[in-house]
Inverse folding.
């Protein structure tokens, strides 16, 4: 399914996926002399030494060695000694004060994250300063199904519409958040009390969706409409699942209903890495600094990403911001390497793999002509603690510049950096609710 | 290339950790040889250095060419050798890793002021997080009661080994943990405001000073505050907002007590006042979440404090959720990545941390006569991709894991 979708998306014209995104950059810009990790190809980092990257109108128009042709009139930026690579695709984030389902029921495919996100929230600028240029923004996990996720393109936008990744029909792209394990289990009426009950409720809902989607779809039910997208493979299920038995339950549900699925978190996925690999299901993983904090994270370790990689699982890394701050994505990749992952694999897990998992690889995740000009300029090895992000470019615009004091505030913190431009007590309350729901 | 990388490039020559364990030598005897030994003491960095530990104590340290390793003694080797790391403020051992109601002993909020609660009565040396931080090089924890109440209880210093708290314990009743600001407010009861927090602390300290009238405090509570008044026990005040940090300094000034500022997220906004007050800071974890009380926190604060010559140490702090504890090795590394000189970063989790908790005579640097606590690394300790390859506490090899 993943491959089929990839093929379909690849077939769409590059020009058609622009949606409503405005592009300011009219003069071509050429970066020269850089070490460029293109992240192209099926393995490795596609590294070009003394490379040239040319961007124009929000797109990459050329990339190659020192002999790459630079258009007349282009602005040339000497990037000698610097490293350029694609912007990070964060496959699981909660930036922008996102919310989703409320406590009225355990299954709410009708609610959309996009209707809740505050695009002015400082968490988005912080993420950009950390190199994130695309993020899957999700509702919480205190529900069996907490709503539709939002694939944000971190352009300088004043509205969700401007910051959306859109399909060739202009539709706003996103997935469906599901969860099992302890988070959705509550004493509240309408919520499951056990794992088996959780699975039964999900199965019942999928069976009802199969009936609705194969029928007249009348009267219209917006939740069921979203379920039809899940069933026909156009809306990816992001399945929050930790314990190995819960992961197997998620795989079982997927087999029964045939939906496209990305395992989210998968703290114990290393224990069933071969089972996951056999089914060809990808994983969006997180590595945290110590085990515990909740029962399902009791087996957290820093080796899981390596174990999955060795089993042949297609893996990305995510922040779950603010479980891990968006600015710590490179650090997480470094920790993955500490845990035994290959360097190539860790950098691919930050970029192209996430793009493929979200079905956005036609536009982001690697540096290739025609793709969005979403890239980072780094001072050195991406996996070194001593490397800084100098610049984050999104759609050909310089949106984080470490020499700009206001931008730097987002990158390193300081007075007012964490101010979301709203009453902090309200934000804290929301943060706690989100925490409860995770 | 930064200074540390240069040092490393010059010295990454030593062999892998070797583990030949003869039987004739006591368990507290071991030698550690490093491509570089970062002593954090007067000897500085020793190229191809050796640390000899006998009876749990360092008996010799210097270049391998000058040091005779006793016959039959096990020799561990690693490219980089440092003192065992010191976490200047943790709740590990009291905040169990599962984070369930029955393993969280850092805070009893039935009463806002409980300076008599002892950390030794709550420490679980077998909690998984003790092992977790030990294998990442942390050999000493200043741990105990956490933030969340005006005065939550006492702290203590332990080594990250031992079957019982008594076996782990280095010092009981090290500090009394207090907390000013939003985390310790109880809007439905008292203290419900910041001013009331200060009023309650001032009243308790006034009573302990002996010039109070009738105050309803138990002897245990009063005697704990008397320790503070008499200068035997510092009051560690967790305060992150500038107004709360200033309140803490006001309290220190009024009562002439030793205050250690903990958290101190706004420290970068009041450097002169901190320097004038001569106060030590146990800074929040570098990667602490940038929200709420820590809205103004910065990755660069450690570097700013070092630049301003304000004594500080880094901490893992208290974590309410995932991850259940932070790791000071990584917090110091991230500070090094944000402008703190690598040697200052290492000091903040070794000798400077030892100073802040009053243990610099015993731990925090590799010197003859000090505890034989050592951490070993296969590269720059602060790089994400390096590993801890061995840990020694008082001559006992407590970890041979690669972490």
């Amino acid at each position: 399914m993943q491959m089929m979708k990839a093929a379909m998306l690849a077939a769409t014209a590059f020009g058609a996926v622009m949606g409503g995104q405005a592009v300011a950059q009219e003069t071509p810009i050429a970066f020269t002399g850089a070490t460029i990790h293109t992240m192209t190809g099926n393995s490795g980092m596609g590294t070009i030494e003394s490379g040239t990257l040319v961007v124009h109108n929000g797109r990459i128009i050329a990339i190659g060695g020192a002999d790459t042709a630079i258009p007349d009139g282009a602005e040339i930026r000497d990037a000698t000694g610097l490293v350029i690579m694609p912007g990070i695709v964060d496959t699981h984030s909660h930036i922008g004060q996102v919310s989703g389902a409320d406590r009225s029921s355990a299954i709410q495919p009708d609610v959309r994250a996009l209707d809740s996100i505050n695009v002015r929230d400082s968490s988005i600028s912080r993420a950009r300063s950390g190199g994130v240029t695309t993020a899957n923004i999700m509702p919480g996990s205190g529900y069996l199904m907490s709503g539709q996720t939002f694939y944000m393109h971190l352009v300088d936008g004043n509205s969700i519409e401007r910051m959306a990744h859109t399909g060739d029909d202009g539709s706003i792209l996103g997935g469906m958040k599901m969860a099992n394990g302890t988070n959705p289990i509550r004493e509240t009426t309408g919520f499951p009390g056990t794992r088996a009950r959780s699975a039964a409720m999900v199965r019942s809902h999928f069976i009802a969706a199969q009936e609705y989607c194969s029928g007249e779809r009348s009267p219209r039910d917006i939740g069921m409409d979203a379920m039809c997208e899940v069933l026909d493979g156009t809306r990816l299920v992001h399945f929050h699942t930790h314990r190995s038995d819960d992961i197997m339950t998620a795989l079982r549900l997927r087999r029964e209903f045939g939906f496209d699925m990305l395992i989210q978190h998968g703290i114990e996925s290393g224990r069933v890495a071969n089972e996951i690999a056999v089914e060809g299901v990808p994983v969006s993983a997180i590595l945290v600094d110590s085990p515990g904090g909740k029962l399902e994270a009791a087996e957290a370790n820093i080796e899981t990403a390596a174990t999955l990689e060795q089993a042949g699982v297609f893996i990305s890394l995510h922040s779950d911001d603010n479980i891990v701050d968006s600015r710590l994505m490179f650090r997480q990749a470094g920790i993955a390497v500490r845990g035994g992952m290959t360097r190539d694999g860790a950098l691919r897990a930050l970029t192209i793999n996430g793009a493929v998992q979200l079905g956005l690889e036609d536009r982001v995740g690697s540096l290739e002509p025609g793709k969005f000009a979403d890239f980072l300029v780094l001072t050195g090895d991406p996996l070194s603690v001593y490397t800084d992000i100098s610049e984050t470019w999104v759609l050909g615009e310089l949106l984080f510049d470490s020499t700009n004091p206001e931008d730097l505030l987002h990158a390193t913190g300081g007075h007012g950096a964490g101010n979301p431009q709203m009453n902090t007590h309200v934000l804290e309350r929301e943060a706690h609710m989100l925490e409860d729901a995770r | 290339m930064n200074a540390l990388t240069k040092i490393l490039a010059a010295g990454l020559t030593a062999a892998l950790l070797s583990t030949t364990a003869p039987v004739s030598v006591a368990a507290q005897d071991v030698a550690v040889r490093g491509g570089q030994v970062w002593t954090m003491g007067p000897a500085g960095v020793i190229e191809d250095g050796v640390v000899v530990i006998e009876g749990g104590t360092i008996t010799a340290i210097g270049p391998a060419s000058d040091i005779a390793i006793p016959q039959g003694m096990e020799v561990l080797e690693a490219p980089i050798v440092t003192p065992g790391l010191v976490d200047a403020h943790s709740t590990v051992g009291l905040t169990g890793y599962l984070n369930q109601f029955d393993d969280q002993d850092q805070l009893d909020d039935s009463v806002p002021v409980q300076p008599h609660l002892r950390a030794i009565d709550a420490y679980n040396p077998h909690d998984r997080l003790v092992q977790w931080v030990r294998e990442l090089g942390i050999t000493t924890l200043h741990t105990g009661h956490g933030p969340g109440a005006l005065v939550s209880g006492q702290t203590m210093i332990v080594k990250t080994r031992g079957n019982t708290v008594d076996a782990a314990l280095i010092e009981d009743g090290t500090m009394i943990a207090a907390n000013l600001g939003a985390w310790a407010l109880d809007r439905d009861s008292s203290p419900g405001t910041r001013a009331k927090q200060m009023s309650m602390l001032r009243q308790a300290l006034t009573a302990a000073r002996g010039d109070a009238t009738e105050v309803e405090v138990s002897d245990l509570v009063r005697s704990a505050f008397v320790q503070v008044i008499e200068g035997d026990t510092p009051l560690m005040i967790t305060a992150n907002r500038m107004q709360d940090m200033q309140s803490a300094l006001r309290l220190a000034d009024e009562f002439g007590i030793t205050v250690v500022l903990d958290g101190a997220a706004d420290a970068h906004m009041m450097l002169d006042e901190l320097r004038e007050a001569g106060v030590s800071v146990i800074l929040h974890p570098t990667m602490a979440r940038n929200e709420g009380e820590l809205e103004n926190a910065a990755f660069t604060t450690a570097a700013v404090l070092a630049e301003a010559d304000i004594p500080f140490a880094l901490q893992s702090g208290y974590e309410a959720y995932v991850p259940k504890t932070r790791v000071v090795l990584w917090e110091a590394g991230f500070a090094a990545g944000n402008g703190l000189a690598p040697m200052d970063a290492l000091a903040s989790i070794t000798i400077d941390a030892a100073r802040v908790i009053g243990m610099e005579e015993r731990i925090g640097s590799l010197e003859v006569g000090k505890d034989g606590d050592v951490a070993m690394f296969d590269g720059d300790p602060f790089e994400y991709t390096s590993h801890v390859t061995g840990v020694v506490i008082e001559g006992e090899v407590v970890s041979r894991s690669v972490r």
In short: Chain B has two domains: 3-83+365-399, 85-356. The first strand of chain B starts at residue 30 and ends at 38. Residues 10-24 of chain B have pLDDT under 50 and may be disordered.
